[in-house]
Design goal:
Blueprint lengths: L7 H13 L2 H8 L3 H15 L4 E4 L2 E4 L1 H26 L4 E8 H18 L3 E8 L12 E6 L6 E8 L3 E3 L2 H4 L13 E4 L3 H9 L13 E2 L2 H9 L4 E4 L5 H6 L14 E7 L6 H22 L6 E2 L2
Parallel strand pairs: 3-4, 3-5, 8-9, 8-10
Antiparallel strand pairs: 1-2, 5-11, 6-11, 6-12, 7-10
Length: about 300
């Protein structure tokens, strides 16, 4: 974009005068004379061919044209001042501490982070993963992405999208599965939430739930998927988090049947002030997950504050 010559002195004089509604007070702030401020504002009005103030005996009254210009000037000067301060103090990049469920981090977030970084090159995300147990305060996190119903004490929880579960397995096992009841002949890998398989079988219309194998209980869908890739059994995982494995053919989804056990939520402490970097990350997530929300849930409240 080719910019015209910007009359920075005049714009600065206008912004200060509008803020104080006084040429005199603006002059005191800028350490110049009242006549100099008045002259700069007149130059700006002449260039724009509009009146920015009505001169009154006891001060200034900003015009509609001035009201339209003022917030743009304030935002621009604030942003310049912030960047100069960051450069002076060596804080060129903002640090954003994000903790996320490992499955969400690897299966969904990491492939999309280059887009965020391209849009916000001065924000450095430091990502840590967890197994859905996060202590935001103790870990110094700005945000934590968690899976559940949104009910975490002392947090504001913003819904991202649901991640329904479905059986996933290697092709050799998938070829033996023609109907949901066939799963009773195979090892069913499970998480610490034992009712997940029961819920899926109910959704599939199988009322006599096959017994679950007594073996490893996984606290992560990532580990469960690794076991499934090795042929250890059938995993009940969210297909959306394993699109690469499904696309490559390494894993198959034998049945287009799902059960929903919760959603992914972006959470932060209510007591945590929201920084510009946090705003940027939250807005970006809202943008890139909007199609998921509409497709998966039909309706989600924009925010869900919690006690």
């Amino acid at each position: 974009m080719v910019r015209p010559h910007l009359p920075l002195n005049a714009l600065r004089a206008f912004e200060a005068a509008a803020r104080h509604a006084s040429f005199t007070q603006a002059a005191n702030e800028l350490n110049v004379t009242q006549a100099a401020v008045s002259h700069q504002v007149k130059l700006l009005e002449s260039r724009l061919d509009v009146a920015l103030f009505k001169r009154l005996p006891r001060g200034l009254l900003i015009t509609p044209e001035g009201e339209a210009l003022l917030p743009i000037m304030q935002d621009s000067f604030d942003r310049m001042a912030e960047m100069l301060e960051r450069l002076e103090t060596g804080r060129v990049r903002d640090i954003l501490m994000v903790g996320a469920v490992g499955t969400f981090a690897v299966g969904w977030l990491l492939p999309r982070l280059p887009d965020f970084q391209a849009r916000h090159p001065l924000i450095e995300i430091r990502l840590s993963t967890h197994n859905n147990r996060a202590d935001i305060a103790a870990e110094g996190l700005d945000y934590a992405v968690r899976f559940g119903d949104g009910g975490w004490h002392g947090t504001e929880a913003i819904p991202l999208f649901e991640a329904p579960l479905s059986p996933l397995c290697i092709p050799r096992i998938a070829e033996l599965l023609h109907e949901p009841g066939d799963l009773k002949h195979h090892t069913l890998l499970r998480s610490y939430r034992e009712h997940e398989w029961t819920s899926w079988f109910e959704a599939a219309g199988v009322h006599a739930t096959p017994p679950l194998a007594r073996g490893i209980v996984f606290d992560s869908s990532l580990a469960m998927m690794d076991a499934a890739l090795q042929g250890a059994g059938v995993a009940l995982c969210p297909p959306r988090m394993f699109t690469r494995q499904l696309a490559s053919g390494a894993i198959r989804q034998p049945f287009d049947l799902h059960t929903s056990m919760g959603s992914y939520w972006l959470t932060r402490l209510k007591s945590r002030p929201v920084t510009p970097a946090m705003h940027a990350f939250e807005d970006w997530l809202g943008e890139v997950t909007t199609p998921h929300r509409a497709m998966d849930t039909g309706h989600f409240p924009e925010r869900r504050p919690l006690p």
